[in-house]
Amino acid sequence: MKRRSFLKGTLATGAAAVAVNAGLLTPSTVLADWNKKAFDAKKVDDALNGMYGTASATASGDITLKAPAIAENGAVTPITIDASKMKGVESISIVASKNPMPLVCEYSFASAAEGYVSTRIKMGETQNVVAIVKAGGKLYKAEQEVKVTIGGCGG
Amino acid sequence: MSIKIRMRGKSKGGIAEVKALIKHPMESGARMNKKTGKPYPANYINVVEVLVNGTKAIDAQWSGAVSANPYLGVKVKANKGDKVTLNVASNIGDKGTDSITLK
Hints:
Chain B: InterPro entries: Ig-like_fold (IPR013783), Ig_E-set (IPR014756), SoxZ (IPR030995), SoxZ_dom (IPR014880). The complex is a heterodimer. Chain A has one domain (35-148): Immunoglobulin-like (Sandwich).
């Protein structure tokens, strides 16, 4: 399938998807717990402490953080983090430093996964996006400023 | 209510890039309803997992700051013919699942 038709089909949520997901399928495994403390934190350090038990991260050039320099719509900011150059990546988090609740998402990886995440996040104002990568028991980070012209939190 | 997911994936050299689009409002609980002056109740996907042939590869936790109709792009070690499953659950208990066989 071509990317274009995939996107179109998804936006319309094709009839096939509706049929497949009509409540017949429920996840077979128990889903993991949600770290309320880390996600409710109002400060970056508190969020990282809640998630990883420490807030000190070393800047690393091995993390590729792809984010737009200017986000026209803060509600949909595409972010890609590629840490596959690093060995033993255990977890990747995305932190929007000035959002009301800075921790956006956290991905933890088993051995069958590569240290790569691509997603879209909401950003309230112009701020730094921080990629936190946990590899070999240590925290590493990469930062980039994203200018937001229309905020995407509340309002 | 079940959450609708569209996903696809392709394996190249033992690494498969899996992409998924999930249909969900991702209401953070902070957005105000201007008519009533009260916030819209929070309703967002907070737990996501990716399985390869039934074995967990990625566990993710999301907040309400992930965009509406979330896009998920991840890479897993898997070959053509392997089965990749995506399970999601929201803070109000809605669940969704989809799986594909890698090309």
